[in-house]
Specification:
Length: 340
Amino acid sequence: MVTMDESLVLRAKELITRLDLDRKRRAIRDIETETAHPDFWRNHREATRSMKKLAVLKKELENGERLEKLTQGNDERALSEVLESLEFAAYLSDPYDGNDAILSIHAGQGGTEAMDWANMLYRMYRRYAEKKGWDVVEIDQTPGEEAGIKSVTVNVLGPYAYGFLKAEAGVHRLVRQSPFNADKLRQTSFAMTEVLPVIEADSELGIIRDEDLEWEFFRSSGKGGQNVNKVSTAVRLRHKPSGIVITSQSERYQAQNREYALQILRSKLWAIEQEKQRQMKQELKGTYKTPGWGNQIRSYVLHPYHMVKDLRTSYETSQTDRVLDGDIGDFIMAYLKKGH
């Protein structure tokens, strides 16, 4: 009789405990109860999100039950394959990893070159989201004068969007022959990516007080048709205690832009609290670094050779075209495996 590798079975049993299959069964029952309510589809966006979450939970439960069954058999290869796949999912176990994400890209110094690089990153993330089956909703964009974008903020809607995309937060460096001058000189450009989880209004962050908010309404300069440009649908929100200013202008209706602005504010206030806690812990260790433009995470070299290298994990590839077309999964996996 073939006996299973005991260490493999132990890893599987530890993971089954961590997956908490009973909790997943309860969550599935709760969502299925919601879907039976007559008003469930009244808010189509929320209903769609609930259905996506239900599909993910069912898949996770199916995989967990399969893992349980394999630990009782003797197919070591099948157990190993399923275990490795589920262990990766277990890396996404932080409280907000399963949430949608707010992703912002900002061009660094360098004028048109940097704005074009920011736009290239924006395309890369849109293509990655497309491969994952996620939706991308643009909230605000400031175009460049000649090419590219100065900044853009989007909602990325999909299972574990924040858990995956948090690996992308930081400064991205591009080295290439510039397409914007006749001599095609070698040019270095920078852009910064910010990634925040979408925080629900009823989270533990507390209530944002109306008296702390200052609203301004204006006509959008972005896309959205005649209604957007004729009516003051765009909003600018200032949070007085923190000084945070947020602009949202991509939606046709003021109420939706207000909702997006508040959503971003909640996420930014969460990030401030997280940074305070991180700073306190790191100062005790004597290793705290101020977040910002100095924290370069990845280098993309297109000339005189081709190489993309992550400076945190040392993972690299020469297939630059594939990376810029959204094939960034290996970089993200390397980051998550390192336990950041």
